[in-house]
Design a protein that fits this description.
Radius of gyration of chain A: 26 Å
CATH architecture of chain B: 2-Layer Sandwich
Largest sheet of chain A: none
Helix content of chain B: 25-40%
Largest sheet of chain B: 4 strands, antiparallel
Shape of chain A: elongated
Number of strands of chain B: 6
Structural class of chain B: alpha+beta
CATH class of chain B: Alpha Beta
Order of helices and strands of chain A: HHHHHHHHHHHHHHHHHHHH
Number of strands of chain A: 0
Number of helices of chain B: 5
CATH superfamily of chain B: Dimeric alpha+beta barrel
Helix content of chain A: over 70%
Distance between the termini of chain B: 28 Å
Strand content of chain A: under 5%
CATH topology of chain B: Alpha-Beta Plaits
Strand content of chain B: 25-35%
CATH topology of the largest domain in chain A: Arc Repressor Mutant, subunit A
Largest interface: A-B, 65 and 41 residues
Number of helices of chain A: 20
Strand order of the largest sheet of chain B: 2-5-1-6
Low-confidence stretches of chain B: 118-133
Oligomer: heterodimer
Mean pLDDT of chain B: 85
Chain lengths: ~425, ~140
């Protein structure tokens, strides 16, 4: 039996407490940047003292008390310096807030502050890159180097993004609050966009450092679950949680033993994670119960749920998936959704009708160099027995993708068309 | 990473005695905190081992043994599944748990096997993920 490492214990406490600490502080000092600095001061103090004293019984309250002392120290220090009138006014405001604040309540009344913090770091006044970086830093507790590694950018770029984001929040006087009813929908969608972006960066792994990327999906799922608990009346929050849980349930079935990708319909469904599927279906149920029609996330989750509920691929309810794509295309029209819809159409009602739709989509400029268009078209032609045309499409798709394993798969399909073509003809 | 957090049985839990109202309320509050932190994946309380059974395997032979079982402290009375970043984080969360029994008790933390533990997720596999996502999208 070994004694746990204090450094790792502090890291764990920080992960648990940092968002609520920063949230609580931000409400008092009304400045997210200053709140983070103070919380960080408290962390430094913990790193100095806890290895000697041990982790206190209530580490959250300890960190909050320490941050409070640092806030007062900072103000005292700055008193002797000359300041501009404006800064003086701001300090008086903070001083007032500090004296009025109920510090004990600050660490207890945590849920609302974390929610305020999420809405602030995901404020639409910030660019998406800034929102993502600030959210990972303040809510995920990720360090600047970790964020940089995850997104393949330099540490100074991330640091700058964060500094600028904090400045923008201060300059535009973004209030630290849960938005009012009339702007809630827009603000929620800004938050969900950030969370889903983080999830996909981890799930897709388009690049970046490998060890950190799976953490991004996990982090996004944690954020989604937090949001669902703190804002339980927002159907799209549950929709997004459902979508992420169900997508993540297939994580370990997506690759074969030698690293080859396995398509959804070919996956070994016994390898799906049924705990996550169960959670996803529950979350989707909540979104449906809240009423008001399903939003884009809940619709995508419903499509994912159709697959999750089919015990074998042949049981997939394609007409329902097609109807869900119809609804999705209406809500957020996009040629990529249309292409997916065409696949569902082909599965539900046969390849001829799907091919007609795909041929119409070929004119879409957005899909011009999108390899999945010829790939889907090739698949439909293959099913119709038009092997030579299918072969050409698979080859074209292969030439459009940069991804080596994918190109290999497409070229194999092209070769299979050539072989079958010969044996038939 | 996931951890199974197992609350060990006590004489009281094995006797089927319900915890006090106060403890139930504290546990409910704790559960809510876990949910709000995005940590809790699942959790259930279990009936005493008197209502359970064991199936003993010996080659092809299966023998069913009905409860109750005697080694109380080794039995499980309830469990949670946490999704956390490290064992230390799981420990910190469990330290925040109220004593789950109205008497001396113990909670055991065990890590759940995941894909990385089986060594399947090589960098090359991760590289293929982009393609997979597209394929998944296509197949939907």
């Amino acid at each position: 039996m070994g004694e746990p490492d204090v450094g790792r214990a502090i890291e764990a406490v920080w992960r648990i407490e940092s968002a609520r600490l920063i949230g609580g502080l931000a409400r008092i000092v009304r400045d997210v940047g200053l709140a983070e600095d103070l919380a960080h001061d408290a962390l430094v103090a913990a790193l100095e003292q806890w290895p000697e004293s041990g982790v206190p019984d209530n580490p959250g309250a300890w960190l909050m008390a320490t941050a409070k002392h640092r806030a007062i120290d900072r103000l005292r220090r700055s008193e002797v310096l000359e300041r501009k009138q404006e800064e003086l006014g701001r300090e008086l405001e903070i001083r007032q807030a500090l004296s009025e604040a109920d510090w004990d309540a600050a660490i207890d009344d945590v849920g609302d502050d974390v929610l305020r913090l999420i809405f602030t770091t995901c404020h639409p006044v910030l660019s998406r890159e800034a929102r993502v970086a600030l959210t990972l830093r303040l809510l995920g507790g990720l360090t600047t180097p970790e964020i940089a590694r995850a997104f393949l950018v330099s540490e100074s770029t991330v640091a700058q993004r964060i500094v600028r984001a904090k400045r923008t929040l201060a300059e535009t006087k973004v209030p630290f609050e849960v938005p009012a009813r009339d702007e809630l929908a827009e603000r929620v969608s800004s938050v969900l966009e950030v969370v889903y972006f983080i999830f996909n960066e981890g799930y897709q792994a388009t690049g970046g450092d490998d060890w950190i990327r799976p953490h991004l999906s996990a982090e996004a799922m944690r954020l989604g679950r937090i949001l669902a608990a703190l804002a339980p009346d927002e159907p799209e929050v549950h929709g997004l949680v459902a979508l992420m849980e169900i997508q993540a349930s297939r994580y370990r079935a997506r690759v074969g033993p030698s690293g080859e990708p396995i398509l959804l319909l070919d996956q070994d469904r016994s390898r799906w994670d049924y705990m996550l599927i169960g959670r996803g279906l529950t979350a989707l149920g909540r979104a449906e119960e809240l009423g008001g029609g399903l939003g884009p996330y809940a619709l995508q989750a419903s499509i994912a749920a159709c697959h999750a509920q089919a015990r074998v691929a042949e049981d997939t309810n394609w007409p329902r998936i097609l109807a869900l794509y119809d609804a999705l295309a209406e809500l957020s029209p996009s040629p990529v959704i249309d292409l997916n819809r065409a696949v569902a159409l082909g599965m539900a009602f046969g390849p001829e009708r799907a091919l007609e739709v795909v041929d119409e989509l070929a004119a879409e400029p957005q899909l011009e160099s999108y390899h999945l268009l010829p790939s889907v078209r090739g698949d439909l032609l293959f099913k119709l027995g038009r092997l030579q045309e299918a072969q050409e499409e698979f080859e074209r798709a292969a030439s459009l993708t940069d991804n080596a394993p994918e190109r290999r798969l497409l070229l194999e399909r092209a070769a299979a068309c050539a072989r079958n073509g010969r044996s038939v003809g | 990473m996931r951890f199974m957090i197992m609350v060990k049985a006590t004489d009281q839990s094995e006797a089927g005695e319900m915890p006090s109202q106060e403890l139930l309320e504290q546990m409910q509050q704790y559960n809510e905190e876990l949910v709000k932190a995005g940590v809790l994946l699942a959790g259930e309380g279990l009936h005493p081992s008197a209502k359970g059974a064991r199936i003993k395997f010996s080659g092809d032979k299966r023998t069913v043994i009905d409860g109750p079982f005697t080694e109380t402290k080794e039995l499980v009375a309830g469990f949670w599944v946490f999704d956390v970043k490290s064992k230390e984080e799981a420990i910190e969360w469990v330290k925040r748990c109220p004593n789950p029994m109205d008497e001396e008790s113990e909670i055991e933390i065990r890590q759940v096997f995941e894909i990385d533990d089986f060594g399947e997720l090589t960098p090359e596999i991760r590289e293929t993920d982009q393609r997979l996502r597209d394929e998944v999208a296509r197949n939907q």
